[in-house]
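Reopening closed ticket. The problem is back. First fold of the pair:
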Amino acid sequence: MENKIFISIIAVTFLFAGCHDTNGDSDSKNKKGGKMKYEVNKSEEEWKKELTPEEYRILRQKGTEMAFTGALYKNHDKGTYVCAACGAVLFSSETKYESGSGWPSFYQPAKEGAIDEERDTSHGMTRVEVVCSKCGGHLGHVFPDGPRPTGLRYCINSASLKFKKE
C-alpha cells in the first residue's frame, strides 16, 4: 500500500512539473531581455514603456484577453493586422472569419514567415503558441479546426494586434 501511495505522489509531481508555465529558456535570452533569434530585441523595461499594460501582459507575459471582449473581435473592415509591438504584418482581413471562439480568428498568416510557432504546455494542456516572428510577441494559439483551405484556426488576442484599414 505504501508503494502505491509513493508511486502516486511521484506521478503527480511529474504531472505538475510538466504544466509549469515558463517564458522561455534563459539561455536563449540576450543581455537586454529579448530572445536573440528575433530581429527586434528590447529589454522588458523598454517593452513596458512602449506597450499599454494590457498589451504588455499579453505580448510579453503570454496572457490572454477575455473572450468576446477584444476590440478587433467584431472588426469586418478590409485591411491588414500588424503586431502591436513591432508593426510587422501578420494577418489579412481576407483570411479573417467568424469562428465563434470569442477572439479574432484567421485561417492563415499574411505571408510565410510572418509568425513562429512554439510548443506550449502551460495550463495542463499541449497547444501550439503563435508568436510574431519579428519580435517574439505572444499572439495566441493555432488549432487544427479551422475552415478550408488550410483547416487551421489562428486564435489571436486583439490586444496583440493593430489594424491598418485599406
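Second fold of the pair, where the issue appears:
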Amino acid sequence: MTQAAIIWVDADACPNVIKDILFRAAVRTKTETILIANQPISTPSSPLIRAIQVSAGFDVADNEIVQRCNKGDLVITQDIPLASEVIDKGALALSPRGELFTRENIRARLNIRDFMDTMRSSGIQTGGPPALNQSDRMAFANQLDKWLAQQPKK
C-alpha cells in the first residue's frame, strides 16, 4: 500500500486566502496538510492540519520542506528554487496563483527569476507581482481540486 500524499505549504509567504482554501480542502478530502514557517502559524483545530515552526534563517523552511516531502506530495510555494528542488524529488509544486510547476516549465521559470534578480541587483526597479485576485484564487482552487481528485480515496 502506498503512503497517502501530503500537502506541504511554504507558509511564511502564503496568502491567508490560499491557506483557507487549503484548510477547507484538507478537511473535505481528509488530506494531511502541513505548514512550514519561521514564525508561528495558526491553523484550524483538525488532526489533518498542523504547522511546524523552524528556526529563522535563509531557506530554513524551504530546506525542511525539501527534506520532508516525498514523491507524489504537493508543495504550495511561490519560491521557484524550492519548486525546482521538490520537483527533482518527484513531488509537485503549485503556486498560490494556480501555476503548476513541472519538469517542463521549471527551468524557464528559474531563468526568468535569475534574470529579474540580476536586474534588481543592478539597481533597476522591477516591482513586485500584482496582488492576488479572484481569478488567481480560482486557478489555485481548480489546480488543487485536480490534484486531490487524482489521489486514492480514503
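Update: turned out to be a display glitch only; the data is intact. The chain has a mean pLDDT of 89. The chain has five helices and six strands. Please close again.
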